[in-house]
C-alpha cells in the first residue's frame, strides 16, 4: 500500500480553497508585494519629477525669450511682463484713458485672480506706489497723475512742462534709473526721491489754491499722503535697470499676492 497522502486529505487553508502555504512562502510573497509597491511608487515619483522638470524647462525657455526681447530690464518691467499688463499707451490715449484701462483690468482681477511680482526689487509698497503713479483722478488721496508727463514705457513724453520748480517750462526727464542718482531737479535741491515727490505735492497745493500760479493743471491733481509718497518713491526705485541675467531671475523668482485697489479717503 502506498504511503502517499491522498490529495483530498492534504492540509488546506481556512477558506478551504487552496492548500496552506509553507512558512517560507509567506515572507517571500510579502517581499514581492513590497517590491511591486516600491516600483509603483518609483514610477509615480518619476512622473512627478518629469512634470516638474518639464514645467521648469518651459518657464526657463519662456523667460529666456522675454529676456532677449526686452527693451528695458528693471524689476518693474519684469512685473509688467509676468502679469501680461499693457506696458504703454495705446494710440491717442492719455493718462486718464490708461488708468481707466488698467483699473478695469486689475479691478476684474481683485478678489478672484492673484497677481505676481518679483520677490526682489518690486515689493508690495512698490506695487501700491505703481498704482498711485498711474492713477490720475479720484475722490481721495493716492493720486499721482505722474503719467500725464512721464508716459510709459519710457517714462517721459519728451515735452516741456511748467511744474512749479522753475519759472520756465522744463523738459520732462525719464524716470528710469532715477533711483541711482544722488540729487534731483536741475539745481539738485532735492536730495532724495521722497523730497522730490514732496516738492510736486506742495506745487499741487499751490496750483489748487491759485489757478494763476503758472503751475500746470495736471500738477494740481496730485494728492499723496506722506506714507504714499514713500510708496511712490519705492516704485521709482524699481525702475532701476539690471543686467539680463538678473532680469531673468526677476521673472523666475516670483511672489503671488491678491490684487487690492484701496486708497485712503
Structure overview:
The protein is mostly helical. It has two domains: 23-69; 73-258, Cytochrome c-like domain (Cytochrome Bc1 Complex, Chain D, domain 2), CATH 1.10.760.10. Helix content is 44%, strand content 5%. The chain contains seven helices and four strands. The protein has helices spanning 25-69, 75-82, 95-109, 124-134, 193-209, 226-237, 244-252; strands spanning 114-118, 160-161, 170-171, 254-258. The protein has a two-stranded antiparallel ribbon. The longest helix has 45 residues, at 25-69. The radius of gyration is 33 Å and the shape is elongated. The N and C termini lie far apart (109 Å).
Topology:
Elements: H1 25-69, H2 75-82, H3 95-109, E1 114-118, H4 124-134, E2 160-161, E3 170-171, H5 193-209, H6 226-237, H7 244-252, E4 254-258
Helix pairs in contact: 1-7, 2-7, 4-6, 5-6
Question: pLDDT average, as an integer?
Answer: 83
The number of helical segments is 7
> Structural class, please?
mainly alpha
Named CATH topology of the largest domain: Cytochrome Bc1 Complex, Chain D, domain 2
The structural domain count equals 2
CATH architecture of the largest domain: Orthogonal Bundle
Q: Tell how many strands the DSSP assignment holds.
A: 4
Name the strands of the widest sheet in spatial order. Answer: 1-4
